[in-house]
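Proteins fold reproducibly. Look at a concrete instance:
___
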Amino acid sequence: MVAHVYMLRCADGSYYVGSTRKPLDERIREHLSGAVDGYTARRLPVTLVWANSFERHTDAFDVEKQIKGWSRRKKEALICGDWDAIQAFSRSYQHHGRAG
């Protein structure tokens, strides 16, 4: 079963990262309707800014957790598809003893 990792930009400019086994468009509609209680329900509307699909839900969940630990700049580099910046931010954080 396909699983998705996705990133939403909330009305307050913050980012939300999640994963789902549901069809992605269905999950986004749930966020937009406020049916997903919690972070996004208090920051509507939201916009899908990045997503990726995985064959295994465990892989999607692992990537979700990884991205949640990233800095805002690194998340924005991912949204832009700027792989050089993602790597640079990773090296910068590793150099300073923090997770990327």
